[in-house]
Amino acid sequence: MLTYAIRRLVLSVPTLLFISFVIFMLLQLAPGDPMAQVPLTVPPEVKQKMREALGVGEPALVQYWKWLVQVFWIEPKVFIDWLTRDSWLLGWLPDTHLYNGELRVISWQTRSPVMDIVLQRIPQTLWVVGLSYVVGVLIALPIGIYSAYRQYSVFDQAGTFITMVGFSIPPFFTGPLLIVIFSVYLGWFPSIYDTTHVVRDWASFKVQLMQMIMPVMVLALQTTAQLSRYMRASMLDNLNQDYVRTARAKGLSEAVVVMVHVLRNSMIPVITVIALGVPAIFGGAIITENVFKVNGIGQLLITALFANDLPMVMTLTFIFAVLIVVFNLIADILYGLLDPRIRYD
Fold first, then answer.
1. Torsion over CA: 159, 233, 149, 216 (sign)
2. In the chain, % of residues over pLDDT 70
3. DSSP letter at 294?
4. Rounded Cα–Cα distance for residues 131 and 296 (Å)
5. How do residues 20-56 score in pLDDT, each as one tens digit?
6. Residue 288: its pLDDT value, please?
7. pLDDT at residue 52, as a whole number
8. Nearest to 93, CA basis, from 102, 82, 101
9. Cα(30)–Cα(253) distance, rounded to whole angstroms?
10. 134 - beta bridge partners?
11. pLDDT attached to residue 56
């Protein structure tokens, strides 16, 4: 398993390089000049330094090489310096001072390092998107298991109807609908997510919880609808297998048969959906973050697209590509842990 994981990690490097090259060349076709909106009061030497950082006016391959150096060499040094300086994880170590003022990936819109902006937005996205995915998985798995065990029951029929509705209705409809019902008419929850809110005590935590409920509900609804259907189908396929009848004939309790033998085998295909759903939920949160004004990665990508901020768009799309490759590897490794018959030799 370790050899397989190392081999996959090595193979992921050329894969990510190819993906980044394709994305970069496609974005080069987009029109726009990053220096067009620079005020006339900016000194020429400052404009020249900005132009060098952005790689404007150079061949596409030179710009791509600069981007690779900035992302894979300069940005890690900045991140390590931050960890040893401000992070609670490695803050006890002496400062490294690896970064010596080299040119970083600069946003055309804000004229500031792209990764600094991304790191500022990630906590907001994790609060909403991460929690919604965890909630969706925790709700979907029990629903799928019980629906399969009680096939065609009232619970199964109701669950099938609700999940089909949740899977069919897009977030740009459910988001405003929840705002109209729970914010406008009932006044229970705020319609706009306050990204400046800081949790200091129990009262501020309640405020944070109240403003998270609606965006988490919208995202968790789709996750629950999708995963519960996969879980139900996988459980139904395994409940009719010979090993289940053999386990029951041996006198094992129904709980052990369903929750140990059937569930373990049923989770193998569902693991793929869960793992690959992580990058997908980040991409799907673009609409939800804009509906509820969550100042996260999704809203940042939309803003960068409208502003023609190519370095920001390039970096964010590459981050999504990295998530897809990493969670594909995680899914394959979990296969071997759940099913001893699977070996990666």
1. negative
2. 82
3. -
4. 14
5. 888 888 777 766 555 555 556 667 776 666 666 656 6
6. 75
7. 65
8. 82
9. 63
10. none
11. 63
Total structural domains within the chain: 2
Cβ distance 331 to 276 under 8 Å? yes
- Distance (Å, rounded) from C-alpha 325 to C-alpha 51? 33
Residues of the chain with pLDDT under 70: 1-2, 4, 30-42, 46-57, 85-97, 101, 280-284, 336, 338-345
What residues contact residue 155 under an 8 Å CB cut-off, 6+ apart?
Answer: 146, 147
Tokens standing for residue 148: 């399969």
If asked whether residues 75 and 124 sit together in one domain, one would say: no
Question: Does a structural domain hold residue 179?
Answer: yes
194, two tokens: 């306050």
Structural contact between residues 176 and 194, judged by C-beta atoms closer than 8 angstroms: no
Numbers of helices and strands, H then E, in the chain: 14, 0
Is residue 157 domain-shared with residue 277, that is, in the same domain?
yes
The CA radius of gyration of the chain, in Å to the nearest whole number, is 24
Between CA 119 and CA 328 the distance in angstroms is 24
- Both tokens of residue 8? 């996959």
Same domain, yes or no: 140 and 220: yes
Domain assignment present for residue 68? The answer is: yes
Question: Which pTM was predicted?
Answer: 0.74
Close Cβ partners of 229 (under 8 Å, ≥ 6 residues apart): 144, 163, 167
81 and 182 in a common domain: no
Domain that holds residue 310: 118-338
Q: Work out the number of other CB atoms within 10 angstroms of the CB of residue 287.
A: 20
Q: What share of the chain is helix, strand, coil (3-state, %, to 5)?
A: 75, 0, 25
State whether 166 and 230 are in the same domain.
Answer: yes
